[in-house]
């Protein structure tokens, strides 16, 4: 019998759609138990578009949509102002940690909100009394070649000069102060100047640095020619509609003192607050959530962490604008081992987001993201964004200095429930940042470890790598946007396959004597 071609295609398609499992069958614990990202794969789909046409727009909360689904974790080795600025410039958002005083945290938020691309808002400034020797040392350790000089030695002080490499280079007397060698005949820009006007001034004056001053001659920021030359544009930048300032998030705890902390953060211009608890289903978090929603109805609140529908229901009822999912899946985390409490992350993300999405509450998969594939899987399981600690740790924009061990350039990365982090929290004025202990605790019980990660370069390269990689990954599944992914997973069109242990081995590099794993150029 000769088959009619069109009906044969339809016939074949029916079979094709039966390969693999739909999401419910994959996550059904009767079949496989609790799942992690490595336990399954997504089956390929039909590619009908270029990967560059895949949209990664994602809901962070009910009211905030980002151009990319990436969030940096509120950890003291991951997100401070520099990270938050760059995450927002690159289309995601950074959540500034609260293992510091409320004033320090609010100041970081303020700097992110005041950030203007191309302007250096916190240049390294010196006072006129600093010696030439010290300037030479600063040049050697920081790499900068010029420093603005103010009467206070700080931004905000009266600008009295600028000292450049040329001023100190041939100076034999290292003990004289910079006031004797600095240039005090200055070309400055006035506060409010645009980047292109500043650029023009730099060119016409043939200077390398342009200090920006207010009406009283106080230094407010600086423009640098070298930065302008390598200036990137950031088409995906996350900005508020009205002010066009970068979006900024910050975390708080659930104690009474955190209410005062939040007031300072809101004054500084905060857009979204994360209530940071390892187990979000507590009366403390519910009370805090209700208080925030009544006091700041426009502030978006991400509540969590949760791993079950029951926990999610409590926080949705209390007013959460998004939920954060994960307990025990973080790369620095020993919660599951010590507390016997938590849930494998794949199962947790599916169950919580399947429930929360019905109420229009976006979900963030937090912890355990180790590569681009994990991001795709978290989104396929129902999350709309991912929060990353370890994957971003070791980049240039994280707090802390690089150090060398065994010939490798490393940076510290530690859990907020590690003894190291808790000791810092418990001994300073930031006791409210205790995510992992209560004030009555006599002995710290660690839920995290402190370690080190390898230098990953700048996130201005690393986030675009994640972005492009995720676009390619979704293209492979035949998906053109995160929303499209949601629809096609729910309808059963996107199919999944469980991976046996040997399938996981097969999926990794194997059989080589040696190799180098370079992830991007
Ligand atoms: P990672 O991206 O796998 O490194 O996980 C980061 C996430 O781990 C954070 O966003 C927190 O939710 C969680 N986390 C941070 N510190 C600790 C800790 O000390 N113990 C357990 N989980 C932690």
Description:
- The chain is an alpha/beta fold and 521 residues long.
- The protein folds into 2 domains: 56-116 and 237-401 and 459-506, Aldolase class I (TIM Barrel), CATH 3.20.20.70; 122-225, CBS-domain.
- The chain has helices at residues 5-16, 23-27, 29-32, 81-89, 102-114, 132-142, 165-169, 195-205, 225-229, 257-267, 283-295, 309-317, 335-339, 345-356, 372-380, 419-427, 459-477, 482-490, 501-507, and strands at residues 40-42, 58-59, 65-66, 70-72, 93-96, 119-120, 146-150, 159-164, 189-190, 209-213, 219-224, 249-252, 272-275, 300-306, 322-325, 363-366, 385-388, 403-405, 408-414, 450-454, 496-498.
- It has an 8-stranded parallel barrel with strand order 4-5-12-13-14-15-16-17, surrounded by 7 helices.
- Helix 15 (372-380) crosses helix 17 (459-477).
- The protein is globular, with a radius of gyration of 26 Å.
- The mean pLDDT is 91.
- The structure holds inosinic acid (IMP).
- Inosinic acid is lined by residues 73, 75, 305, 326, 330-333, 335, 366-369, 387-391, 415-418, 447-448.
- Inosinic acid binds at residues 73, 75, 305, 326, 330-333, 335, 366-369, 387-391, 415-418, 447-448.
- This is IMP dehydrogenase.
Helix/strand structural class: alpha/beta
| Strand order in the sheet with the most strands | 4-5-12-13-14-15-16-17
Q: What CATH first level of the largest domain would be assigned?
A: Alpha Beta
Number of H/I helices:
19
Strand count, sense and barrel status of the largest sheet are: 8 strands, parallel, barrel
Overall mean pLDDT = 91
N-to-C span: 55 Å
CATH structural architecture of the largest domain: Alpha-Beta Barrel
How many strand segments?
A: 21
Provide the CATH superfamily of the largest domain.
Aldolase class I
Named CATH topology of the largest domain: TIM Barrel
Determine the fraction of residues in helical runs and give it as a percent range: 25-40%
Hetero groups bound? inosinic acid
- Provide the domain count: 2
Share of residues in strands: 15-25%
């Amino acid at each position: 019998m000769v088959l009619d071609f069109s009906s044969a295609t339809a016939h074949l398609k029916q079979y094709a759609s039966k390969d693999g499992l739909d999401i419910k069958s994959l996550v059904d614990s009767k079949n496989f138990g609790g799942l992690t990202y490595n336990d399954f794969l997504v089956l390929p789909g039909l590619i009908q578009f270029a990967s560059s046409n895949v949209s990664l727009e994602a809901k962070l909360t009910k009211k905030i949509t980002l151009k990319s689904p990436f969030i940096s974790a509120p950890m003291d080795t991951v997100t401070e102002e520099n990270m938050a600025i760059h995450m927002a410039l690159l289309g995601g958002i950074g959540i500034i940690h609260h293992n510091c005083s409320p004033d320090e945290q609010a100041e970081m938020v303020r700097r992110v909100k005041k950030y203007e691309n191309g302007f250096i808002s916190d240049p390294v400034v010196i006072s006129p009394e600093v010696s030439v020797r010290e300037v030479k040392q600063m040049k050697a350790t920081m790499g900068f070649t010029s420093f603005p000089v103010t009467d206070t030695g700080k931004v905000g002080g009266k600008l009295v000069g600028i000292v450049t490499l040329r001023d100190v280079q041939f100076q034999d007397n290292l003990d004289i102060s910079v006031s004797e060698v600095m240039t005090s005949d200055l070309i400055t820009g006035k506060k409010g100047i645009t980047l292109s006007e500043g650029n023009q001034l730099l060119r016409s004056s043939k200077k390398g640095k342009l200090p920006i001053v207010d009406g009283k001659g106080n230094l407010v920021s600086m423009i640098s020619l070298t930065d302008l030359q390598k200036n990137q544009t950031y088409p995906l930048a996350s900005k508020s509609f009205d002010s066009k300032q970068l979006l900024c998030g910050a975390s708080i705890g659930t104690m009474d003192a955190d209410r005062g902390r939040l007031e300072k953060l809101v004054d500084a211009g905060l857009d979204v607050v994360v209530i940071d608890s390892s187990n979000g289903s507590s009366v403390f978090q519910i009370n805090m959530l209700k208080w925030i929603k009544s006091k700041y109805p426009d502030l978006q609140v991400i509540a969590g962490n949760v791993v079950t529908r029951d926990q999610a229901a409590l926080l949705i009822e209390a007013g959460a604008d998004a939920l954060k999912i994960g307990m025990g899946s973080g790369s620095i985390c020993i919660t599951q081992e010590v507390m016997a409490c938590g849930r494998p992350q794949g199962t947790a993300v599916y169950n919580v987001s399947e429930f929360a999405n019905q109420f229009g509450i976006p979900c963030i998969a937090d912890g355990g993201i180790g590569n681009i594939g994990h991001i795709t899987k978290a989104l396929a399981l129902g999350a709309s964004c991912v929060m990353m600690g370890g994957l971003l740790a070791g980049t240039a924009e994280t707090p802390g200095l690089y150090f060398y061990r065994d010939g490798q350039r490393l940076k510290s990365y530690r859990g907020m429930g590690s003894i190291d982090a808790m000791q810092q929290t418990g001994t300073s004025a930031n006791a409210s940042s205790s995510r992992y202990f209560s004030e009555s605790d006599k002995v710290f019980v660690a839920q995290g470890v402190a370690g080190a990660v390898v230098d990953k370069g700048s996130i201005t390269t690393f986030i675009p790598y994640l972005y492009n990689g995720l676009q390619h990954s979704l293209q492979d599944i035949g998906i053109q946007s995160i929303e499209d992914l949601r629809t096609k997973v729910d309808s059963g069109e996107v199919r999944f396959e469980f991976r046996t242990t040997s399938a996981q081995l097969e999926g990794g590099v194997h059989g080589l004597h040696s190799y180098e794993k370079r992830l991007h150029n």
